[in-house]
């Protein structure tokens, strides 16, 4: 047997031993994870009211579409796990509306939203007129959802637009 064949055999034996140890370790980890997971996935955890409420809140739709002149009472049942009508937090001023919702994107420029104080970005938009800004804010434009993802009345959205225009002139 040559020196290289002996070296190859030694390498193969070492490699096989390391591979065997890694496979055994993976099997042990799998068994431990499975046993821990079995303890955590019992039905008792899912039956907890706080857990169920948290899951319902996380999977609830972001917004609903209400149609004028139609019975929209089913929307209230869908948006709340208890079936109660959702609490509407309509702002009283444009500044409150901006702080509650609009600032999430317009303070940082997320998804291409024009930042507050960026007169170069707001100038052309303001030049189109408030009616165009109202229409875009209410109907949605680009990455911005209609009404910023809220269910606020159009008047609240107009107040928010007026506030943002006043801050960017």
Structure description:
By secondary structure, the chain is mostly helical. The chain has 3 domains: 39 residues; 34 residues, no CATH class; 74 residues, Cytochrome Bc1 Complex, Chain D, domain 2 (Orthogonal Bundle). The chain is built from 8 helices and no strands.
Search tags:
63% helix, 3 domains, mainly alpha, 0% strand
Number of domains: 3
CATH architecture of the largest domain: Orthogonal Bundle
Basic shape: elongated
The quaternary state of the protein chains shown equals single chain
- The amount of helix comes to 55-70%
* Poorly predicted tracts of residues: 80-87
Largest sheet: none
What percent of residues are in strands?
A: under 5%
> Could you state the CATH homologous superfamily of the largest domain?
Cytochrome c-like domain
Number of helices: 8
Helix and strand pattern: HHHHHHHH
What integer is the average pLDDT?
A: 80
Q: What is the strand tally?
A: 0
Radius of gyration: 29 Å
